[in-house]
């Protein structure tokens, strides 16, 4: 009945265990204290010399919903990349389809094979949440969850421009979390997706949306306050204005102050750390962004590292993706205005190491990783699939942990880009403990998953076991064992049992009176019934595979 | 029964529901239905298609499964279906008229039986997919149209033949957030036969109708695209339409704040229709360099959008219309009693056929196996995608039904296969 993981070397930052040799006991899906009666131990894994971490958590990965599916639909050629042999194939795991648009099954399998046991869809449009949950419901092996997008929806913008009080905003935000079965709130290009529908092409932090006469700063203030006052763990997830634009670092710096010290998470910050220096008017502002992150303790960030090769960018940011569409490779893209709720832009990209901008983007991401001091406030992402498919994480981990490997890669880049980066002067190498913070303990803490990301008694028994190898890419690509809820599901990097994870949500209390006004809005302006907007728990647990887990508010 | 019962009248035999209608791609979810003694009546917000769908007769007696046209037990029919699938090397699953959950079940069965999936609307679906996969597009959805569109161009379609309530629900509304709904400009480009009366505004303003044969749409859309791009076209007319008329349309589009171009792929039934669709979507792209515009593919029926989406996330690929070599057919149609497998191309071409279909199905050629199944949105709950993508809506069970769901039948077949 009880599984014993014997003699493993534990990296468990939540409990300050940095390579401590200890036994773990698993029972009914959880880690339990050492049993009094050893006869109940029915299965033992000798992990002598092995590295043991909690299952990894991807806190930002586009794994479900309309954008991802449009990308699949538009790019059938991506499915033909199995057995890829081009140079960039080195970023593949052994079973990797090297595919930026994996099917839902592929997504679950590739994640668990790398020792990831949870992933969070960061851009769930409320009107599209049902599709996101349907897709995540068909994603095996891992736990899932989503952040609901607000801040460009006309209902919210009407509230804000009509000077609604903070309580009304809070009620609407909480209602949205319930209705969409989300665990966090995201804002993408605050006010900008809406502005694009009124033919504005850029929106700066203090510039008005022409119709609503509100600024991104006001939107950020309102939403971050709501999230904070509702008491959910996950800080407002912010995709800043001016994504990808040279000189956008100033917007990013100013955005850090838009919440007046209330916690915010700035996502894929690599895409928002660009200066305008040099002949090509495109430079790294990683140093100044990292310094600001080090100083502003209320801000967390994930990187959104790019890696070279073919991928596709899928974003809610229709405004900036419409500008980016001219760089599409292959030359096709989808831009959508959606339901007075938000929008989306799907643009395929091929990042090349000999292209100045791409090479510098690669360096900027790594400069950020190496210059941000606190691993609890910076997270390992490629903004899958926007910077690279998530299957490239082992490669990225090696770049962070192995200075020689990193500098060799840097030396092969476009020479002008090399001249504009200080990367080779950054000698830092991440430790296993720091990797465990970034990909486990920190991510769980950020999202509010109290039972995940650690190896303490009571934790969900999601555990990954690696062989300690000098080649960190090989090590993280193929764990020896992965346990999901206490069951052995991966052995030697291959799935041995198919299981289905849960959907994590947060549901703070709110005044249901908000539905009166919402109902009138829906009747007048929307095209579906308010009741049909809301997703029942039953829809997720249908068929007995899925399950909704609701996390209590942060303490 | 569905949860949201509107009212139970004093007459205990009567219940009312607000239901979602799967009869076309709009999925109107405001239809008031009354169930009296298991017979449904549309009481409000209906259209010809929804009335035909909800008020369709349900036989009082259970329709039995059949083997070679003769009544059989469900168990025997399932075993016969299993036998056909086991003997087949390359089965074709076609029709695919079902909802997301039904499609998912079929997809899994296809994986186990080496089957290929093809929807009954594959030809028209593929017209849009070809454009998406070669150039992409810039599109919008129905709530944006309702609140924002100031010019609506219907190309090769009147829309209402497919989506009867389009103008009522999304165009001639009382209040739109960002424009004067009743002042909208409607432009039809297409055949004399289009039913353009729905384009007359509540104030009596008629729509502009640029008349051409459907087959001339490639020419018209090519020239319109050129004019919007700013090119000079020397000809005095194209496909019988005066150039000045098309130039006027182009000017109107450039001045519009949010022009919407709609088409129904089924109505563009001529060779290489995808090039005409691409003319439309590229015209949108040109307009978006200076103002705002968007495409809106409409139509949709028999769960085609849902099948395509679900197949895409489950396999990574959209459905297609490739010709498929096959040695057996599994035909699925839960929504319509009239849509049938395509006729045999040659009299001796008969392949073993299993039909999982609407209980009222009438076959010209009896399939080897027929199993009646429940209709989502009528006999059982379900989930469907609206034609404009993005929006998925729950369907309700509105009446008692003795037939199993597609999911249940597929599960039983799978159990016998392993």
Question: How would you summarize the topology of this molecule?
Answer:
The complex is a heterodimer of chains A (555) and B (418).
Chain A: E1 2-12, E2 17-27, E3 30-32, E4 41-46, E5 50-54, E6 56-58, H1 66-74, H2 104-113, E7 116-124, H3 129-137, E8 143-149, H4 154-161, H5 166-180, E9 184-188, H6 192-197, H7 216-230, E10 236-239, H8 249-256, E11 264-266, E12 274-275, E13 283-284, H9 286-295, E14 299-302, E15 309-315, H10 318-324, E16 333-338, E17 342-351, H11 356-371, E18 378-379, H12 393-401, H13 403-410, H14 415-419, H15 432-447, E19 463-467, H16 472-477, E20 481-484, E21 487-491, E22 494-495, E23 503-506, H17 514-525, H18 530-533, H19 537-541, E24 548-551
Parallel strand pairs in A: 1-4, 1-5, 6-7, 7-8, 8-9, 8-23, 9-10, 10-11, 11-14, 14-18, 23-24
Antiparallel strand pairs in A: 1-2, 2-3, 5-19, 12-13, 15-17, 16-17, 19-20, 20-21, 21-22
Helix pairs in contact in A: 5-7, 8-9, 9-11
Chain B: E1 5-8, E2 14-19, E3 31-36, E4 39-44, H1 48-54, E5 65-67, E6 70-72, H2 74-87, E7 91-97, H3 100-113, E8 116-119, H4 122-134, E9 136-139, H5 142-148, E10 151-155, H6 166-171, E11 185-190, E12 208-211, H7 217-229, E13 237-238, E14 241-242, H8 243-255, E15 258-264, H9 273-287, E16 292-298, H10 304-315, E17 328-333, E18 353-358, E19 369-373, E20 382-385, E21 392-395, H11 406-417
Parallel strand pairs in B: 7-8, 7-17, 10-11, 10-15, 11-12, 15-16, 17-18, 18-19
Antiparallel strand pairs in B: 1-2, 2-3, 3-4, 5-6, 5-19, 13-14, 20-21
């Amino acid at each position: 009945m009880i599984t014993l993981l014997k003699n493993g070397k534990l990296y468990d930052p939540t409990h300050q265990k940095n390579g401590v040799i200890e036994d773990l006991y698993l029972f009914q899906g959880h880690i339990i204290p050492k049993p009094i009666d050893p006869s109940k131990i029915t299965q033992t894994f000798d992990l002598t010399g092995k590295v043991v971490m909690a299952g990894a958590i991807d806190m930002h990965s586009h794994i479900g919903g309309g954008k991802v599916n449009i990308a699949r639909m538009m790019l059938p050629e991506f499915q033909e990349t199995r057995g890829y042999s081009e140079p960039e194939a080195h970023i593949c795991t052994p079973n990797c389809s090297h595919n930026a648009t994996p099917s839902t099954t592929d997504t679950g399998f590739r994640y668990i094979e790398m020792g990831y046991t949870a992933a969070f869809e960061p851009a769930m449009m409320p009107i599209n949440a049902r599709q996101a949950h349907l897709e995540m419901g068909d994603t095996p092996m891992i736990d899932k969850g989503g952040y609901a997008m607000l801040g460009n929806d006309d209902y919210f913008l009407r509230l804000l421009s009509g000077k609604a009080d903070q309580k009304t905003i809070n009620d609407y935000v909480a209602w949205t979390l319930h209705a969409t079965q989300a665990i966090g709130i995201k804002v993408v290009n605050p006010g900008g997706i809406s502005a694009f529908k009124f033919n504005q092409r850029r929106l700066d932090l203090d510039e008005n949306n022409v119709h609503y006469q509100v600024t991104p700063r006001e939107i950020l203030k309102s939403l971050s306050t709501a999230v904070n006052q509702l008491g959910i763990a996950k800080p407002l997830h912010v995709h800043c204005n001016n994504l990808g634009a040279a000189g956008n670092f100033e917007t990013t710096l100013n955005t850090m102050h838009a919440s007046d010290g209330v916690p915010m998470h700035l996502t894929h910050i690599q895409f928002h750390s660009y200066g305008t220096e040099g002949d090509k008017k495109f430079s790294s502002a990683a140093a100044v962004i990292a310094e600001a992150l080090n100083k502003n303790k209320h801000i967390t960030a994930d990187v959104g590292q790019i890696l070279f090769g073919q991928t596709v960018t899928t974003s809610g940011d229709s405004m900036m993706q419409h500008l980016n569409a001219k760089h599409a490779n292959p030359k096709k893209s989808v831009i959508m205005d959606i339901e007075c709720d938000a929008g989306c832009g799907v643009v395929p990209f091929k990042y090349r190491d000999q292209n100045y901008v791409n090479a510098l983007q690669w360096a900027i991401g790594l400069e950020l990783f190496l210059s941000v001091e606190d691993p609890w406030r910076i997270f390992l992402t490629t903004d899958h699939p926007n910077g690279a498919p998530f299957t490239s994480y082992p490669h990225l981990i090696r770049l962070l942990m192995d200075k020689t490997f990193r500098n060799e890669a840097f030396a092969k880049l476009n020479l002008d880009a090399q001249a504009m980066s200080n990367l080779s002067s950054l000698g830092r190498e991440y430790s296993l403990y720091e990797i465990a913070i970034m990909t486990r303990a920190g991510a769980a803490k950020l999202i509010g998953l109290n039972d995940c990301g650690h190896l303490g008694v009571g934790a969900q028994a999601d555990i990954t076991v690696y062989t300690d190898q000098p080649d960190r890419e090989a090590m993280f690509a193929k764990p020896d064992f992965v346990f999901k809820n206490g069951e052995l599901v991966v052995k030697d990097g291959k799935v041995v049992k198919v299981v289905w994870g849960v959907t994590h949500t947060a549901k703070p209390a709110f005044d249901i009176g908000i539905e009166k006004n919402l109902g009138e809005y829906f009747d007048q302006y929307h095209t579906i019934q308010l009741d049909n907007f809301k997703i029942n728990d039953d829809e997720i647990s249908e068929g007995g595979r899925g399950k909704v887990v609701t996390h209590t508010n942060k303490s | 029964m569905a949860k949201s019962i509107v009212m139970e009248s004093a007459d205990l035999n009567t219940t009312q529901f607000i239901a979602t209608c799967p009869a076309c791609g709009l999925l109107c979810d405001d239809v008031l239905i009354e169930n009296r003694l298991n017979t449904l009546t549309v009481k409000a917000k209906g259209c010809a298609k929804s009335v035909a769908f909800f008020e369709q007769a349900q036989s009082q007696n259970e329709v039995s499964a059949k083997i070679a046209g003769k009544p059989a037990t469900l168990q025997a029919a399932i075993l016969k279906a299993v036998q056909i699938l086991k003997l087949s090397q390359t089965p074709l699953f076609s029709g695919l008229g079902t909802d997301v959950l039904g499609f998912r079940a079929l997809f899994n069965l296809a994986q186990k039986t080496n089957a290929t999936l093809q929807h009954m609307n594959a030809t028209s679906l593929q017209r849009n997919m070809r454009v998406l996969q070669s150039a992409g597009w810039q599109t919008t959805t129905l709530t944006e149209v309702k609140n924002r569109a100031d010019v609506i161009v219907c190309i090769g379609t009147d829309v209402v033949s497919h989506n009867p309530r389009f103008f009522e629900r999304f165009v001639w509304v009382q209040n739109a957030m960002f424009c004067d709904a009743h002042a909208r400009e409607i432009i039809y480009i297409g055949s004399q036969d289009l039913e353009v009366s729905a384009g007359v505004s509540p104030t009596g303003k008629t729509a502009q109708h640029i008349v051409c044969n459907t087959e001339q749409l490639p020419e018209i859309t090519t020239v319109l695209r050129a004019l919007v791009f700013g090119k000079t076209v020397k000809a005095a007319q194209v496909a019988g339409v005066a150039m000045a008329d098309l130039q006027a349309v182009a000017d109107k589009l450039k001045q519009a704040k949010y022009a919407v171009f709609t088409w129904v792929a089924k109505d563009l039934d001529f060779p290489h229709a995808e090039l005409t669709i691409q003319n439309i979507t590229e015209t949108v792209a040109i307009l978006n360099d200076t103002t705002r515009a968007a495409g809106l593919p409409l139509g949709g029926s028999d769960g085609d959008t849902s099948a395509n989406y679900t197949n895409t996330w489950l396999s990574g690929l959209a459905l297609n219309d490739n010709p498929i070599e096959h040695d057996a057919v599994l035909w699925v149609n839960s929504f319509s009693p009239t849509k049938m497998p395509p006729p045999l191309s040659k009299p001796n071409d008969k392949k073993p056929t299993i039909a999982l279909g609407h209980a009222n199905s009438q076959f010209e050629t009896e399939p080897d196996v027929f199993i009646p199944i429940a209709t989502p949105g009528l006999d059982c709950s379900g989930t469907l995608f609206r034609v404009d993508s993005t929006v998925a809506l729950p369907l309700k069970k509105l009446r008692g039904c003795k037939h199993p769901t597609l999911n249940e039948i597929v599960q039983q077949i799978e159990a016998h296969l392993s």
